[in-house]
Amino acid sequence: MSEEKREKAEKLLDAQVEYLTAQLTGKSFSKLVREEVDEFFAAAEKLRLRDVVSVEKIHATARKYAVEMEIAPAIPEITGEIAERIYNHPGHDQNRFGDLIEDREIEEVMELVLEMKDLRERIISEVGGSPLTLNLISDMLYRGIRGFVTEGTNMAGNIPGASSMMKLGKSMMDKTAPGLEKAAEKNIKKYISANTRPIIRYTEKQLNENIENGELEKAVMELWEDLRERKIGEFRNYISQEELEDSMVTGLEIWKRVRKTRYFDSLLKAGVEFFFDKYGDTNLSELISEMGVTREMVIDDAERFAPDIIKVLKKKGILQETLRRRLEPFFLDKKTLEIL
Question: What are phi and psi of 291, to 5 degrees?
Answer without folding.
Answer: -80, 0
